[in-house]
Each structure stands twice: as structure tokens, then as C-alpha cells.
Amino acid sequence: MMKAMKPFCCAFALFCLVAVSPVFAQQAPTPTLNATEAMIPMRDGVRLYTQIYTPTQTAEKLPILLLRTPYGAGPLNGQRIAAALPELTAEGYIIVSQDIRGRFKSEGQFVMLRQPRDPKDKLANDDSSDAYDSIEWLLKNVPNNNGRVGMAGTSYGAWLTVMGALDPHPALKAAIQQASPADMWLGDDFHHNGAFRLSYGLEYCYMMESSKEITDVTKVVDRLDAYEWYLGLGALSNANGKYFHERLPTWNDFVNHPDYDAFWKRQAFAPWLNKVTVPMLNVAGWWDQEDFYGPVKIYELLERHDTEHKNFLVIGPWNHGGWSRGDGQKLGRIDFGSATAAYYRREVQARFLAYHLKGKGTLDLPEALTFRTGANQWTRHDVWPPTQNVAARKLFFQANGKLSFDAPPASAKAAFDSYVSDPANPVPYRPRPIEVRSGWQTWLVEDQRFVDHRPDVLTWATEPLPDDVMVSGNIIANLFASTTGTDSDWIVKLIDVYPEKYAPEPKMSGFQLMIAGDVLRGRYHKSWEKPEPLTPNAVTRYEIGFPANDHVFLKGHKIMVQVQSTWFPVIDRNPQRFVPNIFKAQETDFQAATQRVFRSGQTASYIAVPVVETR
Questions:
Q1: How many CB atoms lie within 10 A of CB 337?
Q2: pLDDT tens-digit series, residues 323-367
Q3: pLDDT for 198-233, tens place per residue?
């Protein structure tokens, strides 16, 4: 999904879908494209605004590349498209950009992530049927096409791509989903493990549902420091009372469906991805601040049915959309040593499309291709997550802030570390001031020292590593904890700590790079569907899984873990007193609570890590 704090991007949303950065357009002459527009009728009579760009000079029939977007196709201009997509236009594609139903110049009613239609209802429509009808029209009305169609997109555009492949037109021969959400309650834009992604959810639905186009969210979030604005908002129940007045359908869905009920399950892809219908390239970024869970989950769901080896996974060192812009050598202050995004576009994306849509070249793709951070190299995998030479290891929390692969010593009395979590003074998720228009894209690679010594953040770290530790696969935090409240959030972060004297770049000395981090809302530790209050002071086990990792903690670095109970305002404040629906909580429901994280005996907290053994 495209972040609400970037309304100025709407005119260029097309380029974020598949795309090569305009920077590269200056390096080669741009082909000439004819630009036409059409209102394509759907099966129910609604017409969708569509731009069609065809090369002016070509001796061959060309495939169609369909890009569907809720963010506006932008001005009709062939030079603009050629400059933004130089590699694809140079190869020769008929590029089609379309406003989806109810957005910008298209007719009909917009529904956020419209749920799939009942397959038995032949007259119903959804984004799968709209893609089908659009392809059918394009094949019949666009001259000089070769009868093959591809779909591609990032974020919402990727979700539309997956929808197009659910019940695909026979001419759809390839699909590239880059950071599609898969489940908006379990792990993508709007919630993570039951915890509401407040700043994203509020800003995005305001941006998308206040008008047919893009609404500037700073009309509502009008303070320089969004942390202060959200703290001033108070309980979530104030959002409708003060600002939305029940006019935003998606916000009302948040309020009416706080738990993992049929609404969220039907919108998720798990019930629908029961076969691989077309070759699918699933693309993710290690530091995607919006949709990292989704593309990995979609790959996993499809892989269960991939008998013909048509489902692939690529993960690089990118933020949301980072594969489509710039060269991808750096993210924030982190340097990966090579142009990772340019490599992906040239060696993976372009070849995948040419192979399937033009029958050109060979498809030299492994099952999974990941950029192994730390070592900073592309790695090919026969299976994901990897299994060969992988050992399950445990990093245990120890006394005095230590972290070790050795189990803690036996103790007659339960050992723990504690802190007070106060919703009135939540831990910021990135350094303040948290500006709406800057900082969002790189907050996951911020130096975590800005919270390292807060009294409501616990820290454990290893000694400097005597050898490299390569972690590849699924990491799971196993937390044994208690609270004096009746509800609680638990945030766990796994961090790579650079040496105190880092010779390659002295200003990076001691840098704390988050490799994985996520949240679990305590009320759901037994059931996503049926929350229940926590028993005060009772030790409870929580499991927090991370979608995927492939990282080397280098010799001389440290491995660190941080635990906290607020992450504001990216995650809403848990009242820490159980209420049936946090969206309806009142100011009086919020309370401070004492949190304990245990680290001995049967309640020894640890991080389960898949370590690749190289000896």
C-alpha cells in the first residue's frame, strides 16, 4: 500500500508499480510511444479509465503489460512513460495503465481491497473480473498485440495483480507481485498480530476515502511532530468523534471488526490461493515498512500447489518499492556494496517478462533468490526457507543484559528483568520529531540507540562475536512474560550492533541495525478470533514470528535483543486494561503496568534462530 504521507506521489504511482527509476532515463534514448485513452466497459456496464502506450516503430507483435492502480494513471503522455520505464519500453511492450473502479477517472464505487466475489455468481464483479474484462477488451481493440498479457505492480498494485491471477484470462501469461499485502490483520498494512498500525491505518484510509482522488493527510495530522498529534488524539474512539464522523468506510471496518473475524479472513488471500494459475514472481524487501509479510506469505501459499515450478521468491535489501527506484546500493546509512535494485530490474524482472511474454532468452531463476545482508551477496536457494546445513539454535536472555547461545544457569527463584510501560509516555518508533512527510521510508534502518537506554526498553546483547553467525530462514521470539495489567503489547527487535571502532566507516561505529522487529497484542496469545484478558502477574508464553530473514552477523559485531510494550504511533497504545474493543476504549481505560520478562528455568526467554553451519 502506498503511504498516506506521500500524496504528491499519486501522479507518479504508475512508476512505483513495476518500474525503473526516472534517473536511468537519462542514460539512454527513450523510445517514442503513441498515447491513447479509452473507457473500457466491465461486465456490469461500469467503465474504467485506461491509458494505452504503444511503440511507434516495431516490426513485431508485442505483448501487453497491464498496470492497474488506485493512485491515478497520471497525465496522458508517452514521453513520461518512456522516461519512467526505459528498460521495458526499450524491450518493446504495449504498456497499459488503468484507474481501478471508483478511483480518479474511472466509474463505479471504490471499495478498499474489495473482497473476492462468489465464484458461483457469474454476474458479480471484483478486481479479478475487472482485470479479466480489461484484458479481453485490450486483446480485441489494441492493434499489433501478440495475444500475451502480463500484470505487475507494487503494494496495492501488487494486490491487484494477485487478484488478476485468481481467475485469470487465458491470455495472462505472467504476473509480478511486488509487496502485495496478503492479510491485513495478521501481518500487513493495517495490523500486525492483532495490534493496530495506527499512523498508517488512519492516514491511509483518510487519504484514500475522503475523496475520489488523493487527500492531503496533513489537513488532519497538522503538527510537525505526529507523535504529539496522535498522543493528543487520545483513545481511538476520538477519531470518529473529532474527525471522521463515521464517513470513512475502512475506519468503520476497523471499529466494527477489531478481532480476526470472517471479514478479515475473507479479505485475506489464504482461502483463495489454492492453485498456481500463471507464472508468479513474488518480490519483497527486508526493510519494507508496509508489506513484508504479504509477498512472503503469498509465495508460501502458492508454493503448496506449485507442481509445475512456476512460483518464485525474490527478497532484496529494500524498503517499500525500493526495487523500482534508484540503484539500490544504499538504504538510509546502510551500504550494500552493489546496485541491488538495478540488478533486480535488469537480471530478474526484465528477463522474467521477456521469457514469458515474448519467448525470449532462458529463465535462470532459483526457487528463491535472496540478498544476504551482512555478507552483502545474492544467494540462490533450492527451497525456502532453507534446510540444508541449517541448525535450530536458541539465543537466551541472561542476567546483566547478556545474550548467549548457552542456556541460563539453573535458579531456585525465577529470574526476570522488569520495566514500567506507561501509555501516557509511549516509546516512539523512530526519532522525534516524527514528520508526516519524511522519515517513513527508512525508519526500519534507523539506529536503535535512540531508545536503547529508555527505562521502558529492555536490552540484552552478546559479547563481540568470535566468528560470523549466518541466520537464514524463520526467526521466532519466545517470550515468557507477565504484566500487572490485563492486556499488553510485546514488541521484540533483533539487532545487529556494529563494532565500537568500525574501520570501514567510523561514523557507523556502534550502530544498531534492526534486522527483525514485530509486535504481538497479548489478548490474542491463545486465539486470534477470541481475545481474552491476561491474568495479572501470571507468566505467559508469547511467540512472535518474523516472516523471513537472511543475514550474517559478522565477526566482531554483537547480536542484541530489545523488548518494549509501546511503539508509537506506528502501533496504537494498548490500554493495558482489557476492554472488549480497543477502538471503543475511553481515556479512563488506560493505565500503567509493570512488565516482567523472565530468563531462567522453564521460563527462560529466547530467540529461536536458524543458523547456517559453514564448517
A1: 11
A2: 998 999 999 999 999 999 999 999 999 999 999 999 999 999 999
A3: 999 999 999 999 999 999 999 999 999 999 999 999
Gyration radius of the chain over CA positions: 24
Report the candidate in 465, 499, 442, 485 with the shortest Cα–Cα distance to residue 609: 465
Q: Are 582 and 258 in contact (CB under 8 A)?
A: yes
Q: Judge whether 36 and 94 are in contact, CB under 8 Å.
A: no
* Kind and range of the H or E run holding 482: strand 476-483
CA-nearest of 42, 40, 45 to 73 is 40
Query: What contacts 346, CB < 8 A, 6 or more positions away?
Result: 87
Q: How confident is the model at residue 120 (pLDDT cuts 50, 70, 90)?
A: confident
- Please state, in angstroms and rounded to a whole number, the distance separating the CA atoms of residues 85 and 88: 6
**DSSP one-letter code for 210:** S
Per-residue pLDDT at 163 exceeds 80? yes
How far is it, in rounded angstroms, from Cα 357 to Cα 310? 14
Backbone angles phi, psi at 442, to 5 degrees: -125, 15
**Which has the closest alpha carbon to 38: 24, 25, 53?**
53
- Which amino acid, one-letter code, is at 156? Y
- What's the rounded Cα separation, in Å, for the pair 388 and 512? 30
Of 445, 201, 159, 193, the closest CA to residue 295 belongs to 159
Percentage of the residues of the chain whose pLDDT score is greater than 70: 95
Residue the block writes with cell 476520538: 238
What is the Cα–Cα distance from 173 to 149, expressed in whole angstroms?
A: 6
Assigned C-alpha cell, 252: 468503520
Residue 418 Rama label (left phi>0; alpha psi -120 to 50; beta): beta
- pTM > 0.85: yes
How do residues 48-89 score in pLDDT, each as one tens digit?
A: 999 999 999 888 999 999 999 999 999 999 999 988 888 888
Q: Is 268 helix (H, G, I), strand (E, B) or coil?
A: coil
Q: Which residue has the cell 514472481?
A: 281
State how far the Cα of 319 lies from the Cα of 441, in Å rounded to an integer: 7
Q: Which helix (H) or strand (E) holds 281?
A: strand 280-285
How many whole angstroms separate alpha carbon 583 and alpha carbon 202?
Answer: 12
What are the DSSP calls for 303-358, one per residue? HTT-TTS-EEEEEES--TTGGGSS--SEETTEE-SS-HHHHIIIIIIHHHHHHHHH
pLDDT of 14 strictly over 50:
no
